[in-house]
């Protein structure tokens, strides 16, 4: 049986997973909505990937990334837990060694990564505001009763592009409503919204960055051809959407897991983890006025990880008494 | 007299001096506890959402002193030598304090414009009317002021990051600890502005001359001093801080020109520790990957 690598990317809106072979070809992939319960979606993801692989290969390494990377790493016993910036950069550099810029817009964050000779050298992420990210597009699509999948095509059909305020989602929404009340065609408004998202991205996340070709566009919003063409218009460059743009973070995590497990066995808990009972509990620590929200991850009745405490009282207490490593062998 | 000092903003620079001075004057000094969530929440109730995080925190500390003290000590720094100004919010906090405390609590707020000796002496007289003990207390307390002249030593081979931010942000564990500890746990020595001698921080050479804000000039000078001694520069600014956002931009441009890895973190009360950690981890790793391969461009 061939050895393959697993990568999981649990974001705020969607959960992505891939299985790749040693030549980094995608053998199985899955994309689903996180819908507020990362553990549930991680299990669904494992079940789906396990079904696609059908026992044909051995997982030689598993990596997790995304905002729930730590939780996912504990659940699947990942070999490496890596932040999403590195994961996206690694995947982009692997498939497109000549790429110099990665634009990434996900559910709740957006980032830019600058690569030179395949090496990430600079990055920026949106700061305290999530204006212009995927969840905002979702919300507007729902408000207009248009499936999000059609959003991009409608933008391309626009006859003229209206100006929508893009700095803030609240203002953008009222601006869109105002334009609609004036009788402007929906296509034109959607095209304006795509422009606004790109303008906001260029003025905040990408501000001051040296954007050189080749430019890749990754993350969920890359599915939207309207946003892509707005990027091309603004940058006056061709923008490439990689074949696996949705799961690039997961691919990166898998590649990193491959590097990590070189010469050793994987700790991966197996696709059967989909059937193990996991639970998360949160409690407010009353040890000091900070009232930290501590999260506990429970695997079949046993606490296997805790985090969220500023002082380390709960997380360190656990790592002293029972290491997650020993738990994985039970 | 029970005199309260809020453990916020300028406390992180002059706090020891203030405490000593008031104690020498015979006051019973009450310093608020370290910042925590409860204090921050209290502060948010009082000030507009437009002000920066450290001012919100200060408001929380002032609120905490209400009913516990007869007076609150809160100097108003307007400008220091060379007509270098403090930021407008810092100048205005005394008025916020007055609104919050009402008439029953005395506000001892020496106004510092240039020299600080006379305003502090005058403030001392409002606690003890006799000038002699005031002068004695002041000269004793002055020993607590920063008189660092030596520069820190940097070991060859260690990984270093310059953490450029205000003392009231990085000195406050509630804000700064997760930033410092993430760098430390990744094997970096954190080089802070406030380890540098006054002579470096107050330098008027080069572009620093054009910066008219006293604490921002310090940030820039620290950046200039540390830039070629570290593996990367991380600038920490408060959301909504005008002076910082300008000076940070100049630092970013210069770092870019000199090919130094640069990260800017923006803080407000919504900033989650997780987001900061993600950015710092990525920054550290990028800096290392970048070092491993000689740059073509």
List keywords for this structure.
heterodimer, A: 330 residues, alpha/beta, Nucleotidyltransferase, domain 5, 3 domains, five-stranded mixed beta sheet, 13 strands, globular, B: 297 residues, Rossmann fold, four-stranded parallel beta sheet, 11 strands, 47% helix
What does this structure look like?
The complex is a heterodimer of chains A (330) and B (297). Helices cover 38% and strands 24% of the residues of chain A. Chain A has 330 residues and is an alpha/beta fold. In chain A, helix 7 crosses helix 8 (225-235). By secondary structure, chain B is α/β, with parallel strands linked by helices. Chain B has two domains: 2-144, Rossmann fold (3-Layer(aba) Sandwich); 159-292, Rossmann fold (3-Layer(aba) Sandwich). Chain B has helices at 11-24, 37-46, 53-65, 88-101, 117-125, 131-141, 167-170, 173-185, 198-201, 214-226, 242-257, 273-292, and strands at 2-5, 28-31, 71-73, 76-80, 84-85, 106-108, 111-113, 159-165, 188-192, 232-238, 262-267. In chain B, helix 1 (11-24) packs across helix 6 and helix 10 (214-226) packs parallel to helix 11. The longest helix of chain B is centred in the C-terminal third of the chain and has 20 residues, at 273-292. Chain B is globular. Classes of the chains: A alpha/beta (330), B alpha/beta (297). The interface between A and B is medium-sized, with 23 and 36 residues.
Radius of gyration of chain B, in angstroms, nearest whole number:
20 Å
Helix content of chain A: 25-40%
Mean pLDDT of chain A: 88
Stretches with pLDDT under 50, minimum 5 residues of chain A:
322-330
Largest interface: A-B, 23 and 36 residues
Mean pLDDT of chain B: 91
Query: Could you give the order of the helices and strands of chain B?
Result: EHEHHEEEHEEHHEHHEHHEHEH
Beta-strand content of chain B: 15-25%
What's the overall geometry of chain A?
globular
Widest sheet: strand ordering of chain A: 3-2-1-4-5
**How many domains of chain B?**
2
In total, the number of strands of chain B is 11
What composes the largest sheet of chain B? 4 strands, parallel
Strand pairing plus helix content of chain B: what structural class? alpha/beta
Q: What's the total helix number of chain A?
A: 11
How do the helices and strands follow one another from N- to C-terminus of chain A? EEEHEHEHEEEHHHHEHEHEEEHH
CATH class of the largest domain in chain A: Alpha Beta
CATH architecture of the largest domain in chain B: 3-Layer(aba) Sandwich
């Amino acid at each position: 049986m061939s050895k393959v690598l697993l990568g999981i990317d649990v974001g705020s809106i969607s959960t992505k997973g891939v299985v790749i072979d040693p030549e980094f070809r995608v053998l199985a992939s899955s994309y689903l909505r996180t819908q507020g319960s990362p553990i549930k979606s991680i299990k669904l993801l494992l079940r789906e990937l396990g079904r696609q692989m059908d026992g044909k290969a051995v997982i030689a390494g598993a990596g997790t990334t995304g905002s729930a990377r730590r939780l996912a790493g504990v659940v699947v016993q990942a070999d490496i837990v890596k932040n999403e910036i590195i994961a996206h950069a690694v995947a982009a550099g692997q498939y497109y060694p000549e790429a110099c810029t990665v634009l990434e817009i996900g559910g709740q964050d957006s980032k830019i990564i600058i690569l030179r000779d395949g090496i990430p050298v600079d990055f920026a992420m949106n700061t305290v505001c999530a204006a212009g990210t995927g969840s905002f597009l979702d919300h507007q699509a729902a408000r207009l009763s248009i499936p999000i999948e059609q959003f991009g095509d409608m933008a391309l059909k626009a006859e003229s592009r209206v100006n929508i305020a893009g700095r803030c989602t609240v203002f953008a929404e009222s601006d869109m409503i105002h334009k609609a009340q004036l009788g402007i065609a929906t296509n034109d408004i959607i095209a304006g919204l795509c422009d606004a998202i790109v303008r906001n991205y260029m003025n905040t996340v990408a501000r001051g960055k040296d954007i050189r070709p080749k430019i890749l566009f990754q993350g969920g919003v890359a599915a939207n051809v309207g946003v892509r063409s707005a990027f091309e218009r603004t940058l006056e460059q061709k923008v490439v959407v990689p074949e696996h743009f949705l799961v690039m973070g997961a691919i990166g995590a898998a590649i990193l897991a491959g590097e990590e497990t070189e010469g050793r066995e994987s700790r991966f808990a197996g696709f059967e983890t989909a059937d193990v009972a996991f639970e998360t509990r949160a409690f407010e620590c009353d040890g000091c006025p900070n009232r930290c929200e501590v999260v506990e991850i429970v695997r079949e009745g046993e606490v296997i990880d805790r985090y969220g405490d500023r002082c380390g009282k709960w997380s360190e207490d656990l790592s002293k008494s029972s290491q997650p490593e020993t738990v994985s062998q039970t | 007299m029970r005199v309260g000092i809020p453990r916020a903003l300028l406390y992180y620079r002059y706090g020891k001096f203030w405490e000593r001075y008031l104690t020498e004057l015979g006051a019973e000094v009450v310093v608020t506890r370290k910042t925590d969530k409860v204090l921050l929440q209290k502060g948010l109730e009082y000030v507009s959402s437009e002000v920066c995080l450290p001012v919100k925190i200060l408001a929380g500390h002032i609120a905490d002193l209400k009913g516990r003290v007869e007076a609150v000590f809160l100097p108003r720094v307007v400008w220091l030598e060379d007509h270098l100004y403090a930021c407008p919010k810092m100048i205005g906090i005394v008025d916020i304090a007055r609104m919050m405390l009402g008439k029953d609590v005395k506000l001892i707020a020496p106004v510092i414009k240039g020299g600080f000796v006379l305003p502090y002496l005058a403030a001392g007289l409002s606690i003890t009317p006799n000038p002699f003990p005031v002068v004695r207390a002041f000269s004793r307390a002055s020993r607590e002021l920063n008189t660092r002249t030596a520069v820190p030593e940097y070991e060859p081979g260690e990984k270093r990051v310059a953490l450029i931010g205000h003392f009231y942000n990085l000195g406050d564990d509630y804000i700064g600890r997760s930033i410092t500890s993430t760098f430390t746990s990744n094997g970096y020595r954190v080089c802070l502005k406030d380890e540098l001698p006054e002579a470096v921080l107050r330098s008027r050479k080069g572009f620093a001359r054009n910066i008219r804000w006293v604490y921002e000039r310090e940030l820039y000078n620290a950046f200039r001093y540390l830039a070629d001694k570290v593996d990367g520069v991380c600038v920490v600014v408060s959301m909504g801080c005008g002076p910082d956002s300008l000076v940070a931009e100049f630092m970013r441009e210069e770092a870019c020109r000199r090919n130094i890895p640069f990260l800017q973190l923006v803080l407000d009360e919504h900033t989650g520790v997780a987001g900061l950690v993600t950015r710092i981890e990525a920054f550290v790793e990028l800096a290392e990957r970048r070092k491993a391969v000689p740059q073509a461009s």
